[in-house]
Amino acid sequence: MIFDRSRPFYLTGTAITFCIPFVGDPQLFRCQASTHTFNPPRGVLRENELLVRYVRLDHNAEAVKGEFERDLGTIKQHLEWIVRDVAPFTSAIPELVRQRLQSRRDKLTKDQGLAASLGYPVRRREGAPETYAVPTVRRKVAAARPPVAGGARKPEPTLTMEEYEHILSVVSNMVVVMERSPQAFAGMKEEDLRQHFLVQLNGQYEGQATGETFNQPVKGARLANSSTPRTRSAVELVRNIRNMTGGRGHLGRPYPSCS
Length: 259
Hints:
This protein has helices at 61-117, 161-180, 182-185, 190-204, 229-244, and strands at 14-21, 44-46, 49-56, 143-144, 158-159.
């Protein structure tokens, strides 16, 4: 019997916690479906588990098991109701994306038409690189073999000056993009930065350039007015292109410096 009801009275009991693993968005447990009850299941979310806790004063395992199985069935029922509400929204996402893209495309087209109908020239930002322009026909590198005087020495293929200058222009445009948007590239590793250059080169030339092609050590690479170490890494890539050909151009002419 409890004689002093002004203070709490504690009983010795046992707490049993069931850990229910799940896969998916845990925030769905916090949502209420259109079909629901006024006594929803309760639990605690911890990473990818739902914790359900029971406290009993006895050691009746069958009672604990039966209570848990009832709650587990209720949890599954509520999840099925949520899935039924979410499914139409999920299936409608592709069409919503297409509509948004089409709306955006139509607006850009109308904006261009408006600018053209004004009758005044549109001023472009000076020096804006056109890294998005991909040629209809991808270029083929013409390997020129300069003549070798005397002997049976096999001439090594080299890039023509025209192709070399074109490669430099593609790489240089990417460097300008990096300098103007340093925050976008600040957290990238060397391999990720190199991949951005390879994407531009592979869009211009047939074949498939690889990162290891440009991964030779280079000494003394530097860039005037460079603001970040990432920019200097870009110029090292230009240096590596020159080193691939031994620093010589068509008919053995030296290439211009990239400093």
